[in-house]
Write a structure and sequence with these properties.
The complex is a heterodimer.
Chain A (H helix, E strand, L loop, with lengths): L4 H4 L2 H5 L9 E2 L6 E4 L1 H20 L2 H25 L3 E7 L2 E2 L3 E9 L6 E7 L3 E6 L4 E9 L4 E4 L3 E5 L6 E7 L4 E5 L14 H7 L14 E6 L11 H5 L5 E5 L6 E5 L8 H18 L2 E6 L2 E6 L2 H12 L2
Parallel strand pairs in A: 4-12, 15-16
Antiparallel strand pairs in A: 1-3, 2-11, 3-5, 5-8, 6-7, 6-10, 9-12, 10-11, 13-14, 16-17
Helix pairs in contact in A: 3-4, 7-8
Chain B lengths: L6 H15 L8 H19 L7 H19 L5 H16 L5 H18 L6 H22 L5 H25 L24 E2 L13 E7 L10 E7 L1 E2 L4 E2 L14 E13 L6 E2 L1 E2 L2 E3 L4 E3 L5 E3 L7 E12 L5 H7 L8 H9 L7 H14 L3 E2 L10 H9 L1 E2 L1 H14 L4 E8 L2 E3 L4 E5 L3 E9 L3 E5 L16 H7 L16 H22 L3 H10 L5 H25 L7 H15 L10 H11 L4 H16 L5 H13 L3
Parallel strand pairs in B: 13-14
Antiparallel strand pairs in B: 1-5, 2-6, 2-17, 3-8, 3-15, 4-5, 6-12, 7-11, 9-12, 10-11, 15-18, 16-17, 18-19
Helix pairs in contact in B: 1-2, 1-5, 1-6, 2-4, 3-4, 4-5, 5-6, 6-7, 7-16, 10-12, 11-12, 17-20, 18-19, 19-20
Classes of the chains: A alpha+beta, B alpha+beta.
């Protein structure tokens, strides 16, 4: 992908970076920008002062020192470029978060060359410092604060370095096509689960009607752990004794079937209701209940486990 | 951002600052230097005991102390010495107040300035090397500030690399950057640190020990032939007036306009005279100079006088002739050079009569005086007895121990008594030939005094009475090596056992002198004139072509530098990695992709789950790959094994 002249000199390229991509990005002269830092400008003043001393005293050695420092300044530009050039950045996984939490984006930085990269700084909302040794691949997580539910697109990631002398800062603004799902913020207030309407459930699944007695969660035995069993039900004592993983079985377990219904959720507006629903989903999952879920447009049959839980939250996020 | 100032960085910085200020111990007032040392040591202790750091009030007090100290020392802050002290003190004070990363930078920059002030005192090649080393340490400090983990050694390595990469461009800048002399008003007055050479008077009787210093006074590079040692008389001040003890230059030199023109004959010598900084304006030309640059004048005593500041190294192109005739003598000159402090004593008259001073022709008399020195018990010594009263008579009749000044003054005195105009000439005699540099080196130890007598039809003629002393009467503690080399004492060569053991030391010394000479000639003395001369020899005549050359050569060097810096990037990817990638590609074709960030082991476990049919192969390949990649002892068999396995691998 080549750039037109106009694109090349567009201001946003230096700050926001080029168009977002989901491919890996190799840092080259096109993406690396270098400007002197404040300290670098101070260094220029130092050189000027030395030249002045050399001029006034007509001293060739001071001239030479000033020239050496000026050349060091100049050579540092090349080193600054070298501190970033060749790095390959790839977007990694991103974990869904609840609104208001910081979303973490993984970025894999690969140093394919035989040079060490000192003091690299990657910044999104906050800055992460790290060092890469020769041919090292490192995954770093950058966090961005989320405010709204739904898909959250990653902002410009800036990779920079002031190595070796701090006189120049080389930076590279990068935009990835990575996005993360932001769930609604769970309501803080504790509101009891809605009463499930027996009739409705009976109509839907009459065979289950007799099992719907609440509070009959008496422990009646252990069974071998199977993937998907709630973690809360694991018999940890047995596990600690080295007897293997077992799940505790409760008498009324499969009988509790909770329906979380949008229409029955208290709240003044959509967001509040979604927030409450979110809270209920979390609580139900933690309690190890069977819960079904209906919001306008989406209906999920009762279930439990991580996959079901995430499906519910995703539906809430994208409502 | 409040930086957690790393102790290692601090130690690094403090050590480099200590190294930078150390040479200043020679020329800073003791009080200021001790004040600075105190601050430095204080800060050093505080690296480990941070609670000893001064608070704001103490810092303020220290600043006041510093200002008072500086003001009492120099009554101001401008000028070389005052400025140096100011920068050093400011550096010391700033050390106690390191709060942010910015402060570290400010301190480093101040340290660079202090390093540069060192050159205002000394510009030798050794000092240059030392400062370059210290700058390396300072830059290493900056490197370690900017790299989180860099160890001391690797920071030093990086700094050295950067400086070496910077050298070509700085040399180009040094050669091509236009040198403009600073206007006079900008030059601060500063005391001369020039070496003290010959004094402007001669008082042989009051000296009981003549120091022979090895210090260099000037160097001479001859364009053609080099004069033989006995012709190497470097003319300095001429002393005619005496009160019997002390000899000085006559005050009145206005007779110059009445002097005859000097006629030159004999061998002509063209040479460049490179003077070390002096405290006087004397330029020691080979006797007798005929052509000389405009920056010097020749006075009535045929001595070259520098018009400019003598406190700097300077080079002069001069032509001298070995034979000359100064022609007639003016009235003033005759009067000056026959002057006697009082009537000569009986003893003197008797001696002159005895040596036929009053009847024989001048030349005969001179010869008999020289023979007198040779045949009587006259000794050459550097530690003569003090002769406070009547030194000439004491020397001639009693002690008979002395060095060149004793002989020259006594000789001139006898001439004057006999009615011959005579005077003492001071300067240097001889000079050591440096084979490496191809020049003569004249040192303080070559200082000499001889006599000049005015003879009819010949003009002023040089006589060296010291040379007349019998060699066996030269005192033992005279540094034979030095004296022979300078030709100060003319022994017959058979008498001298040249110490061979010292010869290699001598050649090493000469080699060093040669390097030092080139350093001075090409680096330190690279002035406006030298630059334009050198550049026009390259065909660079004006500013615009200078700039073109500058840009072109910097561009060229940058290209070469960029190539050397970046070529390391194109290193070969390790072979095992290529093989592993080939294996991954095969899997990808079968629909199994390696995720970004997934380790080889995790990937292999996943593949084993997904494709139990190839689990065994996958396991093996991964194991060999990991062994090759992460274990130190590489086995050649493993490479071949991996290669074969990957080749035969089918997903």
């Amino acid at each position: 992908m080549s750039l037109s002249l106009k694109q090349r000199f567009h201001r946003s390229r230096f700050i926001k970076g080029e168009k977002a991509t989901d491919k890996s990005i190799t840092l080259s002269h096109r993406r690396i920008f270098i400007l002197p830092t404040q300290r670098g400008l101070g260094f220029v003043i130092l050189i000027t002062l030395l030249l002045l001393i050399a001029f006034v005293y007509n001293n060739n050695m001071v001239y030479l020192l000033a020239f050496i420092l000026a050349s060091v300044f100049f050579v540092t530009i090349l080193h600054s470029f070298k501190s970033l050039a060749g790095l390959v950045l790839t977007q990694g996984h991103s974990q869904a978060v609840f609104s208001g939490e910081a979303a973490g984006f993984d970025i894999v930085i690969n140093n394919p060359n035989n040079v060490q990269r000192f003091n690299l700084q990657a910044s999104l909302d906050r800055t992460v410092n790290f060092t890469l040794v020769e041919q090292e691949k490192k995954s770093i997580t950058l966090y961005a604060v989320t405010q709204q539910r739904g898909w959250h697109n990653i902002d410009t990631v800036t990779l920079s370095s002031t190595y070796p002398l701090g006189l120049f800062r080389a930076w590279s603004p990068l935009r990835f096509a990575a996005k993360t799902l932001v769930y609604p913020k769970p309501n803080i207030e504790e509101i009891p689960f809605p009463e499930t309407e027996v009739d409705q459930a009976q109509e839907q699944s009459p065979t289950l009607a007799n099992k719907k007695t609440k509070g009959s969660d008496d422990f009646y035995g252990l069974k071998e752990y199977q993937a998907g069993d709630p973690i809360k039900h694991i018999h940890w004592k047995a596990f600690a004794k080295g007897q293997g993983l077992f799940s505790k079985q409760y008498g009324g377990e499969s009988l509790v079937e909770l329906w979380l219904n949008y229409d029955q959720t208290p709240g003044n507006n959509d967001e509040q209701r979604l927030s409450q629903l979110c809270r209920w989903v979390i609580d139900a999952e933690n309690a190890g209940l069977l819960y079904g879920f209906t919001i306008p447009g989406v209906k999920l049959e009762p279930g439990y486990g991580k996959a079901h839980y995430e499906k519910c939250l995703q539906a809430l996020a994208l409502f | 951002m409040v930086l957690d100032v790393n102790q290692r960085i601090l130690v690094f910085l403090l050590v480099s600052i200590g190294l930078i200020t150390l040479p200043h111990i020679n020329h800073m007032p003791m009080t200021v230097f001790s004040f600075f040392s105190l601050l430095l040591i204080w800060r050093f202790v505080c690296v480990w005991k941070t609670n000893y750091l001064p608070n704001k009030i103490i810092i303020l007090l220290l600043v006041i102390v510093a200002v008072v100290l500086l003001y009492t020392q120099h009554k101001g802050f401008l000028g070389r010495d005052a400025g140096t002290n100011l920068f050093v003190t400011a550096l010391g004070l700033k050390l106690l107040e390191i709060k942010k990363e910015r402060d570290l930078y400010l301190i480093s920059y101040l340290a660079f300035i202090v390093a540069s002030t060192q050159f205002l005192y000394q510009q030798s090649i050794l000092m240059a090397g030392y400062i370059l080393f210290v700058c390396c340490v300072l830059i290493a400090t900056l490197v370690s500030i900017n790299s989180q983990k860099a160890a001391t050694v690797s920071a030093l390595k990086t700094a050295t690399l950067i400086i070496f990469q910077a050298l070509p461009i700085s040399i180009v800048l040094f050669v091509l950057f236009p040198r403009v002399e600073a206007p006079r008003w900008m030059l601060f007055n500063h005391q001369n640190t020039a070496i003290s050479g010959l004094s402007d008077s001669l008082e042989p009787g009051s000296i009981s020990r003549l120091g022979l210093s090895d210090e260099l006074v000037f160097r001479v590079k001859f364009a053609g032939k080099i004069p033989p040692p006995n012709q190497r008389y470097w003319r300095g001040p001429v002393f005619s007036w005496t009160n019997g003890k002390r000899w000085t230059e006559s005050k009145n030199l206005f007779f110059k306009k009445n002097q005859h023109k000097v006629t030159y004959t004999g061998e002509s010598y063209q040479y460049t005279l490179m003077m070390e900084p002096q405290d006087k304006r004397w330029v020691f030309a080979l006797d007798m100079p005929s052509l000389y640059p405009d920056s010097v004048t020749k006075n009535a005593l045929y001595q070259l006088i520098n018009k400019d500041n003598p406190g700097k190294r300077a080079a002069y192109k001069i032509t001298s002739f070995s034979q000359y005739n100064t022609g007639d003598i003016t009235k003033t000159e005759r009067k000056d050079n026959l002057q006697l402090p009082s009537d000569p004593s009986e003893k003197i008259i008797h001696l002159v009569t005895q040596l036929q001073g009053f009847e024989a022709p001048a030349e005969r008399f001179i010869q008999s005086v020289l023979s007198h020195f040779k045949n009587e018990n006259f000794y050459y010594t550097l530690t003569p007895p003090l002769m406070e009263e009547n030194p000439i008579e004491t020397f001639l009749f009693d002690t008979r121990y002395g060095f060149c000044s004793h002989y020259a003054t006594a000789f001139v005195y006898l001439m004057r008594v006999a009615g011959l105009p005579a005077r003492v000439v001071a300067g240097y005699q001889g000079g050591e030939h440096n084979k490496v540099g191809g020049f003569l080196e004249v040192r303080q130890a070559n200082a000499h005094a001889w006599a000049e007598v005015w003879l009819k039809n010949k003009g002023w003629t040089r006589f060296d009475p010291t040379a007349a002393i019998a060699p066996e009467r030269v005192e033992q503690d005279v540094n034979i090596d030095l004296q022979i080399a300078t030709g100060l004492v003319n022994f017959s060569p058979a008498n001298i056992n040249v110490s061979r053991a010292l010869s290699w030391m001598k050649s090493a010394k000469q080699l060093w002198s040669g390097i030092d000479y080139s350093w001075q000639r090409w680096v330190i003395n690279y002035s406006t004139v030298n630059q334009s001369k050198f550049l026009s020899s390259l065909g660079i005549n004006n500013i615009s072509s200078m700039v073109q050359w500058l840009v072109a050569s910097i561009a060229l060097i940058t290209c070469i530098l960029a190539w050397t810096i970046f070529k390391t990037r194109q290193t070969k990817i390790a072979e095992e990695l290529i093989l592993y990638q080939r294996y991954c590609k095969k899997l990808a074709r079968a629909g199994v992709y390696k995720k970004a960030g997934e380790t080889a082991i995790n990937f292999s476990i996943r593949v084993q789950h997904l494709r139990p049919d190839i689990a065994e192969e996958v396991k093996k390949i991964t194991a060999i790959y990991i062994r090759l990649r992460y274990e130190q002892n590489l086995a050649k068999e493993d490479f071949i094994l991996l290669k074969n396995k990957v080749a035969s691998f089918k997903a």
